[in-house]
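chain below, 348 aa
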Amino acid sequence: MTVMEASSIDQSAVSSAPSSARNTLNADTEFLSETCLETDAVVFDGDRHASISRLQLKPPQSSDLVVDVEWSGVSAGTERLMWSGDMPPFPGMGYPLVPGYEAVGRVVWSKDRAELVGKRVFAPGAQCYQNAHGLFGASASRIIVPAERAVVVDFGEPQEAILLALAATAYHAIAGGAPPDLIVGHGVLGRLLARITMALGAAPPNVWEIQPERADGEGYPVIEPEFDGRTDYAAIYDVSGDAAILDDLISHMRPRGEIVLAGFYSARPSFAFPPAFMKEARLRIAAEWTRDDLSAVLRLVGEGALSLGGLITHAHEASLADEIYQTAFEDPACLKMVLDWRDVHGAV
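prediction:
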């Protein structure tokens, strides 16, 4: 796919911009003649509604990349909380809000990294909006990101590169301890945990799932919790988002076993102390992935040990935002929703 030519910018808008913006924009007149600093973005208002709005972008710095997004992904975990207004206090949180931490697109401008222009990159979010919060800000037709935040990708199926953030999240959780022998939740993150576990040479884990639409295994058993009588799990990874599940998990773990909270919780996780005390249970929280985790995932994919295929179940034009997010958050058959921005660029 070739890079689409960007439309021209209104020069009168430049002269009326703040002096700091004029200084940055005037640093590259060629960019000014070919690009406008606007984007169409998904915007949440915290009331279970998503819309497409035209937003102004902050002027790029010389070390930034301007990326025309081809695809962005929807997170059924954290983004659901932002969409519904149930997200607990979090740095950068506020409305109106541009969600998304998974974007793949073509670089259309960079002053310092001109060799990247035309390259396809993965970007894990953006904070480039003048009149909206960006948490995490990747769900837009055009974004501006620091060059060091983007990674050049060359996938046979380029859409699959949006899964790199979740794959790096899964790898980060596993790299912090023993691999899982039980995974709770068989969405995309649970599947990636299982795939990476096996890619690293560990035994196939068991997976708990209560939704029949997600009960398909990939070389490992997927079972309903009520039918699992084991009480000797050494490493239980929870990606269910259920803050009330800890008591049940503790009852299934071996003495001195570990529970890893690898998802996100809107409510306060809690557990009864005596059973945890008797088993000397350990609890670990896996947070944000690092660049090393992403590099490890790219290596596994490049070696053919890890596949990102078969996880994207739904893809729609971004203009259908409200319908898209309703489906992503409420249809259990939807593992991963992708927004397709390619038809938008002609209007930017």
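The domain at 165-285 is CATH 3.40.50.720 (Rossmann fold). The longest helix spans residues 291-303.
thats it, cya
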